[in-house]
Write a structure and sequence with these properties.
Residues 6-63 form the HTH lysR-type domain. This protein is 39% helix and 22% strand. It is built from 11 helices and 12 strands.
């Protein structure tokens, strides 16, 4: 009996179901419609002549045929993605699209950077993909990543752009007209807006831990823009990147930038793309343009 060949899209769906253990998780990761993906999986199983997953209330568990198909899908998709990166890395064109993944706090800065970059390179169009989690550059979810981290992103070709200044801020309405900057001893005495456990790895969250009593924490949030909003509302002081908070008319610095909280901004790409003409142009521009935007004294 002759079976029809599976396409890369079919293999991608099978791999995603295996990785997430459910059809719901797979369609969310791939951006597919649930009913369409359900029909596609049924068609794939009909083509191979075997059930690839056992369905239960706990999710989708691969059968023996499913395990074999997932392993083959991983190999074939990895090779396809490697070939795509290699071809992209040889791309000498200076036109087209560059996808940049970055956290939400950097969106205003990145938008201004892209506007300035487009003025120099009108043939290139930037696409911003906001994601606080690190999108996969291995699978070409993005071409370039801008990330704030104490260490260079692992497994990528990375260049340090600048040190990011971070200071304490408070609502202007709660401050005297000529309030002086506070030292650390005075700084920790007030009420604070803190980050929750999902951002516990950030240096600003670690600085507050052990310095500020829990009863002085008036609110916890899971994004830095939310911390800024709470600070603007007068809920307490917040440690924020200066490039983000200095732009707000509702808050003011109550400390100098804190060296122990400072982190670094990295420009990262997959090693196979580092010689791409488009990536090189953006990297050189970002290294020239971004330091003045994020390293604020």
């Amino acid at each position: 009996m002759r079976h029809e060949r599976l396409g890369l899209d079919d293999l991608e769906l099978v791999r995603a179901i295996g990785a997430h253990g459910s059809l719901t998780g797979a369609v969310k990761a791939l951006g597919l419609d649930h009913s369409s993906a359900f029909r596609r999986l049924a068609a794939i199983e009909a083509r191979v002549g075997a059930a690839l997953f056992r369905r239960s209330r706990r999710g989708y568990t691969p059968t023996d045929a499913g395990e074999l198909t997932i392993a083959g899908a991983q190999r074939m998709l990895a090779e396809s993605e490697r070939l795509q990166r290699e071809l992209s890395g040889r791309d000498a064109r200076t036109e087209g699209r560059i996808r940049i993944t970055l956290p939400d706090t950097l969106a205003p800065v990145a938008a201004r950077m892209c506007a300035a970059f487009r003025a120099e390179q009108p043939g290139l169009r930037c696409e911003l993909v906001i994601a606080n989690a690190f999108l996969s550059l291995q699978q070409q979810d993005a071409d370039v990543a801008l990330r704030a981290s104490a260490l260079a992103p692992e497994g990528l070709s990375s260049r340090k752009v600048a040190a990011i200044s971070i200071a304490a801020y408070a609502a202007k309405a709660a401050l005297p007209a000529r309030a002086k900057l506070l030292d650390e001893a005075a700084l920790v005495q007030g009420d604070w807006v803190a980050l929750n456990e999902s951002l516990a790895h950030l240096s600003s969250a670690q600085w507050l831990q052990g310095r500020v009593a829990e009863e002085r924490i008036t609110m916890r949030v899971n994004t830095l823009p939310a911390a800024l909003a709470a600070c603007e509302a007068g809920l307490g002081r917040a440690l924020l990147p200066c490039y983000l908070a200095d732009a707000s008319p509702w808050v003011r610095r109550v400390s100098a930038p804190l060296p122990t909280v400072q982190t670094d901004l990295w420009f990262a790409t997959h090693p196979d793309l580092r010689r791409s003409a488009k990536v090189k142009l953006l990297r050189e521009f970002a290294l020239r343009w971004l330091p003045g935007e994020v390293a604020l004294a």
